[in-house]
Amino acid sequence: MEKLYNRSYFFDQGLHFECQRCGVCCTGDPGVIYVDRDEVPRIAEFLSVEISLFIEKYLYPFRAGYSIKEHSDGRCFFYDDGCTIHPVRPDQCKTYPFWFENLRSVKKWRRLSRECPGIGCGTLYSKEKILKIVQSTMGVVVKSNLGDNETS
């Protein structure tokens, strides 16, 4: 990982981002909204739902965890004029847009910034913080609803 920190990136001076809670990343094309097994109890408690009922009603098995079900239009089941589980949303959602696939090139980042109004606003994330986020999501982030952002 040290090699990653010593390389030069287009975001060496950091990137600004602040979620606008617009829902662009929660709607659109269907995708996987990964929920780690450890995240399930926190979300179920927030919804005041038994864990087994939460899993049955809102999730489907995916890899070592689950994915949140989506409406037929690709909208996350928990998006209704805003994220209804925002305080306890999954790490995949918390770390957006700082996913490996989104940061592979300045071209991809610029394309994404045209779709996500939070890019360029708010908090300045340092290169180190961005790389830490990317490292924490490697192998977890599967696909956003904004297009072809896939990792394995």
Give a brief description.
It is built from six helices and five strands.
Walk me through this protein's architecture.
The chain has 152 residues and is an alpha+beta fold. The chain has helices at residues 2-6, 40-46, 51-58, 91-94, 106-115, 127-137; strands at 15-17, 34-35, 59-62, 65-68, 123-125. The strands form two sheets. A three-stranded antiparallel sheet has the order 2-4-3. It has a two-stranded antiparallel ribbon with strand order 1-5. Mean pLDDT is 89; it is low at 143-152.
Properties at a glance:
5 strands, 6 helices, single chain, 152 residues, 30% helix, alpha+beta, two-stranded antiparallel sheet
Termini separation comes to 18 Å
Question: Shape, please?
Answer: globular
Number of strands: 5
Sheet with the most strands: spatial strand order: 2-4-3
How much strand? 5-15%
| Total domain modules | 2
Mean pLDDT: 89
Rounded Rg: 16 Å
Q: What letter string, H or E per element, gives the SSE order?
A: HEEHHEEHHEH
The largest β sheet comes out as:
3 strands, antiparallel
What are the SSEs and their pairings?
Elements: H1 2-6, E1 15-17, E2 34-35, H2 40-46, H3 51-58, E3 59-62, E4 65-68, H4 91-94, H5 106-115, E5 123-125, H6 127-137
